[in-house]
Structure formats: structure tokens, C-alpha cells
Amino acid sequence: MTEGLLVVISGFSGSGKSTITKRLLEEYENYALSVSATTRSPREGEAEGVDYFYKTEEEFLEMIDRDAFLEYAYYVDHAYGTPMAYVEEQLAGGKDVLLEIEIQGALKVKARRPETILIFVTPPNAAVLEERLTGRGTETKDVIYSRLHAAVEEAAGMEEYDYILINDDLDACVRELHNLIQTQHCRTAQRKAFIRQIQKELTEREETLL
Ligand code: 5GP
User: Fold this and answer.
1) Residue 104 is part of a domain; what is its CATH number?
2) How many CA atoms lie within 13 A of 45 on its CB side?
């Protein structure tokens, strides 16, 4: 079986990246979503093991000590990390594994596993982003300001990504993301085992005709 692909999905808060990832998992079979560990508290509606594994500072540090993370980073006031075991298990089982993480983590994963695909999800323009942040209706002006401020900083890192996915129409965006990932399976680097196999087969056939 060929190994799955590791795919990082980042994007501004309000870019729709979580919705897109969720839709991808619902609509297609070959994906697995990595659930991160974090030291932040659960928000309303979030569940242990579904949205995150909620850890104390001590537990998180203990995971760092035993090298349990593929990457980890500090974002705002909290630590976030990708547990390695699940990712490796799913990749080995041929699944394409999605990591929904921020840029520092994305770059660490790319440095460690250069074949990783980095995708940045963005709304078509800044007005749409502000509208989405405001539209949730649950956030204060201060929170909206701080999210927009974070977006300005995150936008500075967009060029580090392999692909920029513009989320204008949700259905189209989910399809585009799926096609983009599946196309990566055709990359020569992903087909090394296949290449060796067909080279071997051809040589064997050539020899039978000698
Ligand atoms: P939130 O607290 O809103 O759920 O997440 C804050 C930020 O942390 C988001 O950009 C999210 O993608 C990112 N994040 C979530 N899990 C991880 C992780 O395991 N590693 C890193 N580096 N970032 C993460």
C-alpha cells in the first residue's frame, strides 16, 4: 500500500478552513483528521478527543519530553501540538492526513517532512473576512479587531505555502481542495515504489524475450 499524504491546512480565523476540512472528511473516504493537543480550555460545544485533547501545562510538557509531537507551537497564550502516533499510523494505512494548524507548526512539519503539502485557505477579500468575523454575532469589537490584526500577521506568511485556496464558493472550494490533494498522488516523489516496481517488471519481461 502506498503511504498517504500529509496535508497542512492553515488560514485566517473566519476563512472557513474548519468547515472545508469537515466537508472533505464527510464527502470523501480517504482522509483522516489529526486531533491536536492543547492547553487551552474547551469552548462551548467542543468535546475531548473530537476537537482537541485538552491537556494541563504539565501534561503538555511531558508529551514534549517524550517526543510525542510531530510539531508544537504557542499561539496567543496557549500551546498546541500534533500527536505523532496517530499521524504515522494513518499515513501508513494509506490515508491522507489533514492537519489544521497555524503557520509556525506548518513550517516545522515542512522542515521535518518536506513532502508535506501546505495549503492556505483565504476568503476572496478582506471585506468578506471582516463580514464573516462580524457575522458570527458572538464576538465583541475588540475580538474582531484582534482577529483582523492576527490576519494581517498571518497574511505575511502566505508565500511560505505551496497552494493558496480561495474560499469564494464553499462547494467549489471543497472540490478544488480534494482535486488538489489527489493530484499530488501523481507526483514523482509519491510514485517511487511504483517506478521501482515497473522498472523491475520491464526488466524481467525483457529477459524472458532474450
Ligand atoms: P483555536 O484555539 O482557535 O482552536 O486554534 C488557534 C490556532 O491554533 C488555529 O490557527 C489552529 O489552526 C491552530 N492549531 C490547532 N491545533 C494546532 C496544532 O496542533 N499545532 C499548531 N501549530 N497549531 C494548531
Assistant:
1) 3.40.50.300
2) 0
